[in-house]
Structure formats: structure tokens, C-alpha cells
């Protein structure tokens, strides 16, 4: 697979898709909650979906629409739906496709919010789950054979930094007619799962896509459906067939709009989508720079940290995923690296000695960020869950930003020496 990213193409695409050539150059905001209809006939058409005009802001607005069309193009999907947050997108996708009694397979380590959504909230609604390591293909195939409806995975384990064999998992889900959802938050542009054959891609746009930490948001992008031969025509998806009959190749749109957005209201707002687009137009430029920075910082730290603090990143030969990084993620696997300080006390000392890097729970920001894991995001997770997710007491998650990599590395080195 040739997965070399043409950043120049995406730089041109993004600035010209977000900006307008005529009239206001910046995206236009339409924060209205309601939209007037021309006449009763038009209202009927809008509600029937035959007239493409705004209905009411819970089911979408023109500013969201612009963001959705750009991200759909970036990911190679037929459409997208913007949501109030990344978790909004995760819950939209899960609640729209799964029913009580269904089972979900989760491959690899997960972001804390997704892990608790699957393990607590979906379970309360009668949706069971199993988790497995990224390379546990025996478990993956046996679950796919048993007829489950959905598989969930992240492009890069956060904070485990395990890299999955994305193409192999996509091919298996297609072989067994199972919907695959990939959380691509860490690797927009670097990994394009829909072009590789995945069904749905989800982002927390709060992270890399915005970059500025000024807008909470999420988005789900979906592929086109083949009304004659699609895997959605499998009898296990019988309750979705009416949407294929009505909307053909765009069937995922009403599945999410009617079964989640309309009924649960995790919709994005116009101001959030506007701010997200302001970030989006420089995404390719930032992604290229940040991913170069991560490798540089990781390599300086590997050489210069004191012996009792270690750095983990797949670009380092010490990582179990070094070979997969080189073959499948040659231009980077996102902004994260981790530090192992041995104990919580030592991790706290290192964090509190940082002068440049900011302590916060976000990732993918333009600034470098760091956070202790077991005392924060994973504080109410039991030992077994932590072990599975690759989280331990000495672990600090770092998200590298746009600063001079030497400055970031220096900050960590002086802080590690101050423990
Ligand atoms: C942050 C994050 C989410 C959740 O996104 P929010 O915008 O915070 O709701 C989901 N997945 C990953 C990988 C994330 O990093």
C-alpha cells in the first residue's frame, strides 16, 4: 500500500475549501436556530428530504454543512455529520447502528471516554462488548464469524501508542460484512481509512483538526453505500434496509440523522463549526510539522533523559511497533508520545518542573501538553482495565505542538533531572 501523504495537495485543498473566492473570504456563520420556509410546499419538501434547505438547527445548519463537506472530501467519504464533541460523534454512530442485544468488538486501547461509553453506558442499554489486543486476530475473526454488527478501533492507541494493522482489519470486516468504525482523531490526513475500505471515520475535531483549543467538536464521515451489493444488505442489518431503499448511496446520512441527531440532539453549533474551520484550513501544514517534531523530540529524549525516565514512541527502535510505523505510518502517527517515570510521585515532580509544556487533558493542540494518566483520565478505572489500556502509575502522556522541538525536549530533560 502506498500511503505517502501529499501534504501540498491537502494544503491547497484546505485553504481553498474553507475560504470563499467571492464575497466574504472567511466562512459565513449562520447561528439561527430556525429557518423560514418559502411556502407550505417548500416546508413539506424540506421535511421529506427532497428540498435541500435548512430545516431546524438541531438537524443541521449551513455552517455545519460547509465543515461537513470539507471533512468528507478530506477523508474520501460521501458525507459527514458534525457533532457537539468527539464523544457526540462516537455516541451518534453507536446508538444509530446498534440495538439492545447487539455486541460490539473493540480492538486495541481506547481514549478514556470511549472506553467508559462502551463499558458503562452502552451496557446499560443492553449492548455488550469484548475487547482485544490489536494483533489478536483469533479473537477478531471469531467475533466477526459470530455475526456481530460493529467493530470499533482507534488508528493509534491512546495512550498505549500501539499501532494496528489497519488494512488487515478493514479487509476482515469487509469479508464478514461487519461495520468498522475507526477513530482517526490522532491521524487526520496521515491515515485515510475510508479510502482503504473502512465504513465510518470519527474525529474529535477538538484535537488536531482545530489545533487551537477554542472549539469543542466532533465529526463522523461515512462511505457511500452500494444499493445492490452492500454489506449493509446482510440480514443482520435488516432494520437499516429502509434507509438504503430511500437514500441509496447516501444511506448512512438518514441512519445517523434520524436515529441519533434528531432524537438525541448531539448536533454541532454554528460558532463551533466556524472555529473548527479556522483550524481546519491549516491542518495539513500543522500535521506535517507536528509529526516531524514528535520524531525529533522522541529521538532527543531517547538519548538525553536520565536512565530512570524512559520515552515511548513508535518511531524509536525500542518500540514494539517500530516496523509497522516504518511501513504503515511513515509520515507519523500523531502528536502523542509517553514518558515512564516509574512512580506517580516521580511523574508529579517531573510535570511540576515543566516551564514550557502545559498540563492539561487535551491533545493535538498547537502547544505541547502533558498529563499524568492514572490520577486523571483513568482515575476511576480498575487495575485490569488500566493494564489492558497500557496505563500505569509512572505514565505521562505528552502531546507535541508546533514549538521548536529542541525547546520542548530541553524542557523535559531539565524537568526529568529535577526529580
Ligand atoms: C478527545 C478524544 C475523543 C473525544 O472527543 P471530545 O471532543 O473530547 O468529546 C475521542 N477519541 C479520541 C481518540 C480523543 O482523543
What's the quick description here?
The protein has 419 residues and is α/β, with parallel strands linked by helices.
Structure, explained:
The chain is of the alpha/beta class and 419 residues long. The protein folds into 2 domains: 7-30 and 61-280, Type I PLP-dependent aspartate aminotransferase-like (Major domain) (Aspartate Aminotransferase, domain 2, 3-Layer(aba) Sandwich), CATH 3.40.640; 283-417, Alpha-Beta Complex (Aspartate Aminotransferase, domain 1). Helices cover 41% and strands 13% of the residues. The chain has helices spanning 7-18, 40-48, 62-75, 86-97, 112-124, 137-145, 166-175, 193-196, 241-247, 252-264, 270-280, 283-304, 322-328, 344-352, 383-389, 405-417, and strands at residues 79-83, 103-107, 128-132, 150-154, 179-183, 200-204, 218-222, 310-312, 336-340, 358-359, 369-372, 395-399. A 7-stranded mixed sheet has the order 1-7-6-5-4-2-3, sandwiched between helices. Strands 8-9-12-11-10 form a 5-stranded mixed sheet, with helices on one face. α1 (7-18) runs antiparallel to α3 and α4 crosses α10. The chain starts with 6 loop residues before the first helix and ends with a helix. Pyridoxal-5'-phosphate binds at residues 85-87, 111, 113-114, 154, 158, 183, 185, 204, 206-207, 216, 218, 363.
Approximate strand percentage: 5-15%
How far is the first residue's CA from the last residue's CA?
45 Å
Number of beta-strand segments: 12
The CATH superfamily of the largest domain is Type I PLP-dependent aspartate aminotransferase-like (Major domain)
Radius of gyration: 22 Å
Amino acid at each position: 500500500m502506498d500511503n505517502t501523504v501529499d501534504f501540498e495537495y491537502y494544503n491547497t485543498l484546505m485553504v481553498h475549501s474553507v475560504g470563499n473566492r467571492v464575497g466574504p473570504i472567511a466562512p459565513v456563520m449562520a447561528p439561527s436556530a430556525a429557518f423560514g420556509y418559502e411556502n407550505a410546499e417548500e416546508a413539506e419538501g424540506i421535511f421529506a428530504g427532497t428540498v435541500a434547505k435548512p430545516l431546524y438547527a438541531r438537524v443541521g445548519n449551513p455552517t455545519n454543512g460547509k465543515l461537513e463537506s470539507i471533512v468528507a472530501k478530506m477523508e474520501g467519504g460521501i458525507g459527514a455529520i458534525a457533532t457537539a464533541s468527539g464523544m457526540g460523534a462516537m455516541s451518534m454512530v453507536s446508538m444509530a447502528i446498534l440495538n439492545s442485544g447487539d455486541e460490539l468488538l473493540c480492538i486495541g486501547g481506547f481514549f478514556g471516554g470511549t472506553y467508559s461509553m462502551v463499558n458503562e453506558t452502552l451496557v446499560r442499554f443492553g449492548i455488550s462488548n469484548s475487547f482485544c489486543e490489536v494483533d489478536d486476530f483469533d479473537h477478531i475473526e471469531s467475533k466477526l464469524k459470530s455475526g456481530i454488527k460493529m467493530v470499533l478501533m482507534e488508528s493509534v492507541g491512546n495512550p498505549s501508542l500501539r499501532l494496528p494493522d489497519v488494512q488487515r482489519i478493514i479487509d476482515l470486516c469487509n469479508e464478514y460484512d461487519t461495520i468498522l468504525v475507526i477513530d482517526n482523531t490522532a491521524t487526520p490526513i496521515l491515515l485515510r481509512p475510508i479510502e482503504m475500505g473502512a465504513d465510518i471515520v470519527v474525529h474529535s475535531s477538538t484535537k488536531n483538526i482545530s489545533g487551537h483549543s477554542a472549539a469543542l467538536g466532533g465529526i463522523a464521515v461515512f462511505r457511500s453505500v452500494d444499493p445492490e451489493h452492500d454489506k449493509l444488505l446482510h440480514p443482520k442489518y435488516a432494520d437499516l434496509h429502509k434507509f438504503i431503499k430511500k437514500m441509496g448511496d447516501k444511506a448512512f446520512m438518514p441512519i445517523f440523522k434520524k436515529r441519533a441527531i434528531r432524537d438525541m440532539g448531539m448536533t454541532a453549533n454554528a460558532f463551533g463549526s466556524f472555529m473548527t474551520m479556522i483550524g481546519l484550513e491549516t491542518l495539513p501544514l500543522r500535521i506535517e510539522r507536528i509529526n516531524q517534531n514528535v520524531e525529533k523530540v522522541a529521538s532527543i529524549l531517547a538519548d538525553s533523559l536520565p536512565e530512570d525516565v524512559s520515552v515511548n514512541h513508535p518511531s524509536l527502535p525500542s518500540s514494539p511497533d517500530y516496523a509497522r510505523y516504518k511501513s504503515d505510518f511513515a509520515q507519523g502517527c500523531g502528536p502523542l508520545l509517553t514518558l515512564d517515570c516509574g512512580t506517580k510521585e516521580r511523574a508529579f515532580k517531573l510535570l511540576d518542573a515543566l516551564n514550557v509544556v502545559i498540563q492539561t487533558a487535551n491533545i493535538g493542540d498547537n502547544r505541547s501538553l502533558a498529563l499524568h494518566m492514572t490520577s486523571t483520565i483513568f482515575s476511576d478505572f480498575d487495575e485490569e482495565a488500566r493494564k489492558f489500556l497500557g496505563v500505569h502509575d509512572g505514565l505521562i502522556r505528552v502531546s507535541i505542538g508546533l514549538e521548536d522541538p529542541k525547546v520542548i525536549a530541553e524542557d523535559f530533560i531539565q524537568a526529568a533531572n529535577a526529580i
